[in-house]
Amino acid sequence: MALLELDGLQVSYGAIQALRGVSLEVHDGEIVTLIGANGAGKSTTLNTISGLLRPRRGAVRLDGEDLTLVPPHGIVARGVVQVPEGRRIFGRLSVLENLQLGAFTQRSSHAIREGIARAFALFPRLQERAGQLAGTLSGGEQQMLAIARALMARPRILLLDEPSMGLAPVLVEQIFEAVRRINREGTTILLVEQNAVMALETAQRGYVLETGAVVLQGPAADLQANPEVRRAYLGQ
Predict the structure, then answer these.
(1) Is residue 212 part of a domain?
(2) Distance CA 125, CA 154 (A)
(3) How many Å apart are CA 208 and CA 65, to the nearest integer?
(4) 162-192 tens-digit pLDDT
(5) Is a pLDDT exceeding 90 seen at residue 23?
(6) Using an 8 Å Cβ cutoff, are 61 and 5 in contact?
(7) φ, ψ (nearest 5 deg) of residue 127
(8) Smallest Cα–Cα separation from 102: which of 50, 143, 153?
(9) Is 21 part of a structural domain of the chain?
């Protein structure tokens, strides 16, 4: 059984159908990427998994449990946590306060301290800026904080929405190395990313989304070698 399964998701914004029967699976321990052009429905897919949008039809299942009617905070409590596009940190709070807010599902102060220590080990720059207002961080530091804040909830599956957006190439490398480390340490990842080259190099499997529908899927290496994918998304 897949850890996360989407089954025939249909989602609309008014009269505009954003997802047209999207189905995919993410298995425990994988990095799976979802690639596609702007407007293809990638962020809509993640927002539907997180409960921020409700499908007209179809289901989102975690370990076989239908999450379709579970509220967003209940989905987080079950271990599905999203890092949103644009980071959306709390700019008027400190780095440490942002991390503490990410731990709202944790009952144990020990677990919270462990989570903060893990965040600082993963991103030492955040420890250096623990007392600094988050809004004064650089773009790369804010992305690190957004990921670290999500990890405070101890997710089983992490939903990453465009983690490299607006970052310099050297910072993109750092973020993706952190993504690989998070996965090695036991967290399953569903990655939405415009940088298809990096996404397919990082993931084990991938799905290609076009106008709200999955048009290709398979091992990441196969998608990298696919002429259509190379032409449309890899700039080759």
Answers:
(1) yes
(2) 21
(3) 25
(4) 998 888 888 899 999 999 999 999 999 999 9
(5) yes
(6) yes
(7) -65, -40
(8) 153
(9) no
Token couple for 138 = 């650089």
Mean pLDDT of 139-158: 94
**Cα 90 from Cα 205, distance rounded (Å):** 33
Q: Look-up: residue for tokens 């970052």?
A: 167
Q: How far apart are CA 48 and CA 161, in angstroms?
A: 13
Which CATH number goes with the domain that contains 47? 3.40.50.300
The tally of domains found in the chain comes to 1
Instruction: Give SS3 for 232.
Output: helix
Q: CB-based contacts of 170: which residues, under 8 Å, 6+ apart?
A: none
Phi then psi for 192, rounded to 5 degrees? -105, 125
User: Containing domain of residue 99, as a range?
Assistant: 26-56+70-232
Work out the mean pLDDT of the chain and round it to a whole number.
Answer: 92
Return the H-helix or E-strand segment holding 75.
Answer: helix 72-77
Q: Kindly state whether residue 98 falls inside one of the protein's structural domains.
A: yes
How many residues belong to the chain? 236
Nearest Cα to Cα of residue 18 among 50, 41, 42: 41
Q: Are 146 and 159 in contact (CB under 8 A)?
A: no
Residues ≥6 apart with Cβ < 8 Å to 116: 96, 99, 100, 152
In a domain, 142, yes or no: yes
